[in-house]
């Protein structure tokens, strides 16, 4: 079993975006050097490889138009920076203002999102590489700049050629990864059925995994739906991928509906005789979804590995036998939650079967996508106009402060290297531009990862050079290190740095054998660059996460309120729009992940900046539970349309929605106060159970009728059907009310 899981993880990585990107980057970077080495012009090959590397960084997934424009902009910018740096670097007095200008401009490109930020990093690397290349005069600098431009153009050609060959590769990989991350989320949820499990610790893991699920889902949404909105995805393959994505998002909602009071569940079923089979069943569902995700990533048709309907029937029979040993209505009522989970798993099994069919990518040519679903509204459009740049030229902008911080840190590293007489100061600058991020927590994490990766990688490289003296073996090791460095860049930064360090050392071994004695200097340079970055992020207009948490919390509340209102339309006879519902659901998932990610970043900051940490964590957990119960309401209404309409639902919906609005208003007041703004007035709100009284009375009446039927051994009747529907709604609405009261208490503690 363990060997199968290990093999599957290897397959997952090989078919992932990380490995394909690493392979593409390796080909683009290594091929020019190898070709020109055999032609006797290695220095030309190194220049071309440098340009390919710096442009390759900007090659992030996207539509054909965005990828092409991004590569062309990166190539133009890299060429200009290489030219300018080559002209001024021989003159120390001109170098300082030039470095400041380049760092500020490239740092500000973060205002254009991930693609703009990567283009900026590529430009910074060009500047650093030109500084690191020993030049005697301007002519040498211009020659190296022209080689970098040639390398950029070479990578543009390679990337666009590979895209033409496999245009859907990045979409399939992102979609498969989203399914696998959802499977791991489901596997973590199965741990709640483990006797004696630490519910709090498992919640932490579940919330952290939800961030990964959301990141992958948003990545697919941008890739797939934007392509379709731009009329680039009208083929049957694209249509099948869109349908897989829509099924995956609905599946995520079904996974969230399995939320119940796990601590209470452990008390009701203390042994493993009932919960054990449930845990195993949920685990099988997670394993099956992993297999589907890997197949989608590889472009292969997935086939069932487990007979899930049979496994469900086994657990259903076990639960029926257990219920027959319980005679009272209360004891049978305790099983309702498990029955609901079984029902959800049955619906998920049907969805799994459909995903297996869709993985053929050509089987659903005649199946229409819901025409009422406006897919273009789910795409976030990134503005690329000049106004976005100029509007951020203020200290209120986090990106502006980061650009200033980056400029000052880089020039400090440059001057320090010149002052202490380093032969090549570029290693310090390289460390600074790579690890200095807008937030303190990210900079701290990158600094630690880079230092550890550099030290361990240097020890590995020196050990290999000490025991191996065959150039061919060292060259093969260097190629493997290049592949590992680029493959793990976005997957595991420490491992990426571990491979990068031997790659550089092996390269120095071939180019400048005498520089091997300075390997320890490279480690010291990394430490210096990391220290400068750490101090800059801590002292120069630092960006602390606690300042932004109230805004994230307010958005989380607003998203849940909209999600709740849209879901309740399924029960109140209000007009229901599928697009508005799914937009509200999307916003809830995004805001939950954003809040949790911000909270985790705060925890990595100095303890003096951990303001209201316990209250924020409690707020996150409560809102995650709230989202899960709303998802349960939505899933019940979508999968099982209401049969017994009750007017009480309208009253309860209005009351709970007003309660959520009151909590959001109080959170907005806190956010305004912490940002030194005038807090808006908050209206009073009366918390009571009066809105629930009519529904409670009706449920008690149904319980009495059903108990009489049980006593008389009557068969299943309409009373039982109505009781199940009303009780499910009653329990979910009461749980939502209880959660809102707990959330309000958490906010009141923060107000004190």
TrEMBL record:
Transmembrane segments: 12-31, 37-58, 70-89, 95-112, 119-136, 142-163, 455-485
Species whose genome carries this gene: Chitinophaga costaii
UniProtKB keywords: Cell membrane, Membrane, Transmembrane, Transmembrane helix
InterPro entries: Memb_transporter_dom, YccS_N
Localization (cell): Cell membrane
Protein's recorded name: TIGR01666 family membrane protein
Membrane protein topology class: Multi-pass membrane protein
Family indicated by similarity: Belongs to the YccS/YhfK family.
Keyword Cytoplasm applies: no
Entry GO terms, CC: plasma membrane
Domain Integral membrane protein YccS N-terminal residue range list: 80-348
Domain Integral membrane bound transporter intervals: 414-535
């Amino acid at each position: 079993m363990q060997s199968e899981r290990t093999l599957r993880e290897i397959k997952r990585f090989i078919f992932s975006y990380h490995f394909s990107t690493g392979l593409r980057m390796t080909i683009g970077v290594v091929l020019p050097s190898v070709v020109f080495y055999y032609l006797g012009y290695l220095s030309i090959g190194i220049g071309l490889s440098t340009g390919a590397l710096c442009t390759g960084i900007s090659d992030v997934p996207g539509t054909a138009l965005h990828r092409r424009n991004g590569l062309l902009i990166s190539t133009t910018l890299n060429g200009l920076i290489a030219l300018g740096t080559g002209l001024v670097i021989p003159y120390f007095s001109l170098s300082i203002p030039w470095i400041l200008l380049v760092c500020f401009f490239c740092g500000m490109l973060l205002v254009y999102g991930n693609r703009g930020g990567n283009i900026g990093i590529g430009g910074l690397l060009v500047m650093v590489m030109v500084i690191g290349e020993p030049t005697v005069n301007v002519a040498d600098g211009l020659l190296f700049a022209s080689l970098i431009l040639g390398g950029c153009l070479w990578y543009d050609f390679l990337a666009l050629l590979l895209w033409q060959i496999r245009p859907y590769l990045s979409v399939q990989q992102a979609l498969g990864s989203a399914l696998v991350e959802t499977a791991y989320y489901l596997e973590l949820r199965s741990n709640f059925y483990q006797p004696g499990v630490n519910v709090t610790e498992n919640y932490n893991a579940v919330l952290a995994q939800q961030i990964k699920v959301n990141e992958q889902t948003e990545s697919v949404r941008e890739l797939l739906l934007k392509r379709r909105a731009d009329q680039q995805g009208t083929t049957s393959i694209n249509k099948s991928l869109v349908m897989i994505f829509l099924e995956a998002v609905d599946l995520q909602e079904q996974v969230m509906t399995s939320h119940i009071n796990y601590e209470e569940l452990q008390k009701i079923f203390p042994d493993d005789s009932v919960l054990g089979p449930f845990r195993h069943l949920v685990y099988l569902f997670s394993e099956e979804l992993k297999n589907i995700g890997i197949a989608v990533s590889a472009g292969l048709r997935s086939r069932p590995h487990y007979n899930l309907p049979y496994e469900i029937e086994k657990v259903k029979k076990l639960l029926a036998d257990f219920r027959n040993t319980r005679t009272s209505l209360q004891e049978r009522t305790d099983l309702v939650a498990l029955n609901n989970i079984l029902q959800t798993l049955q619906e998920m099994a049907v969805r799994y079967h459909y995903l297996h069919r869709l993985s053929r990518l050509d089987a659903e040519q005649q199946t229409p996508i819901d025409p009422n679903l406006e897919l273009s509204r789910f795409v976030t459009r990134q503005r690329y106009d000049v106004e976005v740049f100029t509007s951020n030229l203020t200290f209120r902008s986090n990106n502006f402060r980061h650009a200033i911080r980056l400029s000052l840190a880089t020039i400090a590293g440059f001057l320090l290297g010149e002052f202490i007489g380093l032969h090549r100061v570029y290693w310090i600058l390289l460390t600074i531009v790579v690890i200095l991020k807008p937030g303190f927590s990210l900079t701290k994490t990158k600094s630690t990862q880079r230092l550890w990766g550099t030290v361990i990688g240097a020890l590995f490289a020196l050990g290999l050079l000490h025991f191996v003296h065959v150039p061919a073996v060292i060259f093969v090791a260097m190629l493997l290190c290049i592949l590992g460095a680029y493959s793990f860049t976005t997957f595991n930064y420490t491992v990426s740095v571990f491979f990068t360090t031997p790659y550089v050392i092996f390269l120095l071994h071939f180019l400048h054998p005498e520089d091997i004695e300075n390997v320890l200097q490279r480690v010291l340079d990394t430490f210096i660059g990391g220290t400068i970055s750490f101090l800059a992020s801590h002292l120069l207009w630092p960006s602390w996460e606690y300042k932004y948490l109230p805004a994230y919390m307010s958005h989380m509340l607003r998203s849940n309120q909209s999600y709740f209102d849209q879901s309740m339309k399924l029960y109140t006879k209000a007009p229901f729009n599928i697009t508005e519902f799914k937009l509200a659901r999307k916003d809830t998932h995004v805001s939950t992940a954003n809040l949790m990610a911000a909270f985790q970043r705060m925890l990595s900051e100095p303890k003096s900046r951990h303001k209201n940490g316990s209250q924020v964590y409690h707020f996150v957990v409560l809102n995650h539970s709230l989202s899960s119960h709303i998802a349960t309401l939505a899933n019940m209404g979508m999968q099982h349309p209401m049969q017994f309409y009750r007017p009480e639902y309208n009253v309860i919906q209005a009351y709970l929605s007003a309660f959520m609005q009151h909590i959001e208003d109080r959170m907005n007041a806190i956010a305004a106060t912490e940002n030194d703004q005038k807090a808006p007035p908050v209206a009073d709100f009366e918390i009571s159970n009066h809105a629930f009284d009519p529904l409670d009375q009706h449920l008690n009446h149904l319980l009495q009728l059903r108990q009489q039927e049980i006593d008389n051994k009557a068969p299943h009747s309409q009373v039982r059907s109505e009781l199940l529907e009303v009780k499910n709604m009653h329990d979910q609405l009461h749980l939502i009310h209880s959660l809102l009261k707990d959330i309000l208490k958490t906010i009141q503690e923060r107000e004190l």
